[in-house]
Amino acid sequence: MKSPAAKKLFVMMVLEFFIWGAWLPLIWDYMEMPVVDGGLGFSDTQVALVGSAFAIASILGIFFSNQFADRNFAAEKFMAFSHLVGGLAILALYWVKDFPLFFSLMLVHSLLFVPTMSVANSLAFSHLKNAQKEFGLVRMGGTFGWMFAAVPMYFILGNKAGAEAIAARDSIFLVSGIASLVLAIFSLSLPHTPPKAAAEGQSGFAWLRALKFLKKPFLLVLFVVTFIDSTIHNGYFVMAGGFLGSSTVGIEQKWIMPVMSIGQISEILTMAVLGWFLTRLGWKTTMILGILGHAARFAVFAFMPQNQTMIILVQVLHGICYAFFFATLYIFIDAAFPKDVRSSAQGLFNLLVLGIGDLAAKWIFFPLRANLTSDGVVNYHELFLWPTGMSLAAALLLFLAFSPPKELDAPAEVAH
């Protein structure tokens, strides 16, 4: 990343994912903990509603926010406004304790934050000379940001443990809110990316035109596969923490996050070499390998649940799972859709990644785990066979039915 623009885009990604990573891993225990112990004491339904805010935002973003980003706002100004207002909303959660206002503020934050993830991708693609080679390096900043978010929480929580540590987690909203305000200011220094007028003779609704592109068989197949893979990907985060800390695996609670962070470290390395692999393997093979990474990881969970060493080592596959499928997906979308609808197209697929896939993971894997639990012991072998099979099915579908046109066949030749 020699160009000043690429360096700024890298910092943008660091801050973008820092904001999200600061609160997402730690909010759940804080919401569930009784008020007398310093938590919020929300019911399961209330926790689920707060957890659905991102999904709601990803749906509404397709029709409104991404449309504005595509056709009415300069991308950097959209980023600045969204992170200013969204940052104030998440910052206010530090003081809010009652559910109606808490949920409302989280929804406001989500409605403004979720579209910025699509816009950040589009903004990056607009200013990278060779997106196939450079996007992985720029997006790598997001992985750094997610990991860096744990640093301030380490000092805030210090040596606190148990209820005291959970009660102190309201600080996640201070950290996230401040970072959002910093990105709002920084966004004004990003390369100018003007709105794109609708192509002549085309609908003024960017989201509608992006949706119509799913009539193309190769994009419809990719859309279906993305839904399956997003469900599996989100299912990992639904199930991994409890699995690693179970008596079956036996990893101490304090080591669960460090073990899972191995995946983020491998993601950094994989992002760094994504361009090399993508140029040589092409879209289909690269994305299939990303899906098969899930199959391999869940197969180890299913067949070696008591082999702690293998379970720890297999976390390195997370980098392949994310970079080879999701990062490649975003690059492909940029190449496959017209310029005037790219933010909306990114939003359309983010609807699956951040919204419907996340909800499906909760609807599928929470009930499945409950049904496979007897006397407090989970049948992890049978539980993890499900995402393993889903991964293999998605990879097979992509292999058999994903056939992009020849002008998109060779990533190295796509012009930007």
TrEMBL record:
InterPro entries (UniProt xref): MFS_dom, MFS_trans_sf, Nuc_H_symport
MF-aspect GO terms: cytidine transmembrane transporter activity; uridine transmembrane transporter activity
Pfam families the record matches: Nuc_H_symport
Record has Cell membrane as a keyword: yes
Swiss-Prot/TrEMBL keywords: Cell membrane, Membrane, Transmembrane, Transmembrane helix, Transport
The organism's place on the tree of life at top rank: Bacteria
Transmembrane segments: 9-28, 48-66, 78-96, 102-125, 137-157, 172-190, 218-243, 255-278, 310-333, 345-364, 384-402
A GO CC term assigned to this protein in UniProt: plasma membrane
Domain Major facilitator superfamily (MFS) profile: 9-406
Main location, first listed in the record: membrane
Localization annotation: Cell membrane
Coiled-coil features, chain-numbered ranges: none
Membrane topology designation: Multi-pass membrane protein
PANTHER family per the UniProt record, alphabetical: BLL5896 PROTEIN, NUCLEOSIDE PERMEASE NUPG-RELATED
Protein name, entry field: Nucleoside transporter
